[in-house]
Design a protein that fits this description.
It is built from 10 helices and 21 strands. By secondary structure, the protein is an alpha/beta fold. InterPro entries: NAD(P)-bd_dom_sf (IPR036291), RmlC-like_jellyroll (IPR014710), RmlC_Cupin_sf (IPR011051), Sc_DH/Rdtase_CS (IPR020904), SDR_fam (IPR002347).
Length: 466
């Protein structure tokens, strides 16, 4: 790729930065400098880079830099220039993620400032410091023949994210910081181009690095379902993209936010829901819940009998939802003697509801799923456990229900739509269904109907038509 100059990787002790440093060394760079707030990690990464370097005169430097501190950034840049004489390629990969999702109104202001400090101010300080070096250094000749293409004094690559373009719920500080990094990259690209310095922003979706380690299990499942490529990106793939943006092959690419997310952000949310529920309960992206059932010990004291995730898991629709039965009783009052009720509950999947009994049903909905209009002739207590749902009644009345909101449906004809994250995220509801007496409207008996849901309950014994 015509990588012959000196690379400076900021935040190169781990993840994307580290593997990009290795790729520069492999591709023939004259030298690689790796800085990081974690000097040990930078030293270790440097050892690996040295081991794969292919340039016979390969030069190396690892150093401590805290990108939030201007002096530290400037001292680091000077050290690199003192050794290499110039900086041809700079990747600013120092960055931090957020510990967990939180509604914007609940985000800790200290955390918000810290993310801005590292991701935004850090990227700015390095751009300023390295930009000043690049704009005054001699242009490098490259092997590309056309002289208009060959003139470059240096290239800078920022680390944006698909979150530079999209906004996921609960990710306020990260999304804001990555929008800002893209803005920084664009304005720096316009400012520095007159000096022969190109600036671009790489915007990956989820990449397999330590940054996402704590979220990895849920993420792998969610990304498998959401990303058309069906997996997380590899750091060697982000490294390839950085090398392209740094090489003269991308000589006409400037101020670009290069989205590399396997096609996720261009996917329509409705398409994302089809086939989403092709895994075990819970649906990808939702918490695994624990069902705890009690019994009595020999002294009549209450003890836990079992703990599991529920029974009779059943994928619904076009793999767009999964139901799990948390408990059911075939009669009221319930006979607890000898734990017969526990056996009965485990024995078979209950119908929509049991005449004279109870059914506690949990349903995980894929993103953007809208169920059909239907009426169950039962009293239904519904609780939103995760996400945001739109409930529409047959009169046309609508309500938005959020986590913790409760609906008491008295044989209502209704339909649900999962609108969590504007149709990009899964949601979860819990329903308790209780039998009712026949109900008459204007002396006509009101009947239940299940619409497209009927086929979901075909093999469950009695479907209610009282
Ligand atoms: N991993 C992903 O899924 C993903 C996706 C899109 C964008 N990104 C972005 O890519 C960049 C690199 O992420 P990663 O996944 O390789 O993370 P990582 O945690 O593996 O590496 C980040 C590095 O930055 C260093 N760092 C943190 N604070 C620093 C500071 N103040 N000064 C200097 N160095 C500091 C860390 O020590 C670490 O070595 C980040 O900006 C991240 O937001 C990551």
């Amino acid at each position: 790729m015509d990588i012959t100059g000196y690379a400076y990787i900021v935040g190169g002790g781990s993840g994307i930065g580290k593997d990009t440093a290795l790729a520069f060394a492999k591709e023939g760079a004259a030298g690689v400098a790796i800085s990081d707030i974690n000097l040990d990690a930078a030293n270790e990464a440097m050892k690996e880079a040295k081991a794969v370097a292919t340039n016979p005169n390969f030069r190396e430097l690892s150093l401590h830099v805290d990108v939030t501190n201007e002096d530290s950034v400037d001292v680091g840049t000077r050290q690199v220039v003192d050794l290499f004489g110039r900086i041809d390629y700079c990747l600013i990969s120092a960055g931090i993620g957020i510990p967990g999702a939180k509604c914007t109104s609940e985000v800790d202001a200290g955390l918000f400032k810290r993310i801005m400090d590292v991701n935004v101010t850090g990227s700015f300080l390095v751009t300023k410091s390295v930009g000043n070096v690049m704009k005054s250094q001699t242009p490098t000749p490259t092997s590309i023949v056309k002289k208009e293409r060959a003139v470059t004094r240096g290239t800078i690559v920022h680390m944006g994210s698909s979150a530079s373009y999209t906004a996921g719920p609960g990710r306020c500080p990260y999304v804001v910081s990555k929008h800002a990094v893209l803005g920084l990259s664009r304005v720096a690209a316009i400012d520095l181009v007159k000096y022969g310095v190109r600036v671009n922003c790489l915007c990956p979706g989820w990449v397999e690095t330590p940054l996402i380690e704590d979220k990895k299990v849920g993420l792998v499942n969610a990304v498998k379902n959401l990303a058309p490529l069906g997996r997380l990106a590899l750091t060697e793939e982000t490294a390839d993209a950085v090398l392209y943006l740094c090489s003269p092959r991308s000589s006409y690419v400037n101020g670009c936010g290069l989205v590399m997310d396997g096609g996720t952000t261009v996917l329509e949310p409705t398409k994302a829901s089809i086939g989403y529920a092709n895994h075990d309960f819970p649906i990808a992206g939702l918490r695994r819940v624990q069902r705890n059932i009690t019994t009595f010990d020999k002294e009549g004291k209450s003890v836990f009998l079992s703990a599991d995730g529920g029974d009779h898991q059943h994928v619904m629709g076009d793999k767009q939802a999964i139901q799990m039965i948390m408990y059911s009783t075939r009669e009221t009052p319930v006979n607890l003697n000898g734990d017969v009720d526990v056996e009965k509950a485990a024995e078979k999947r209950p119908p929509v509801f049991y005449p004279n009994g109870t059914v506690l049903r949990m349903i995980d909905f894929a993103p953007d799923v809208e169920g059909p209009m239907h009426r169950v002739m039962a009293l239904v207590y519904g609780v939103i456990l995760e996400g945001i749902f739109e409930l529409t009644l047959d009169s046309g009345e609508k309500k938005i229900l959020r986590e913790g909101d409760i609906i008491v449906q008295r044989a209502a004809a209704h339909k649900w739509k999962n609108i969590t994250g504007n149709g990009t995220m899964p949601g979860r509801m819990l329903y308790m269904l209780l039998d009712i007496e026949d109900y008459y409207f204007n002396e006509n008996k009101v009947e239940g109907y299940m619409g497209a849901l009927a086929k979901e309950h075909e093999n469950e014994g009695r479907v209610p038509s009282k």
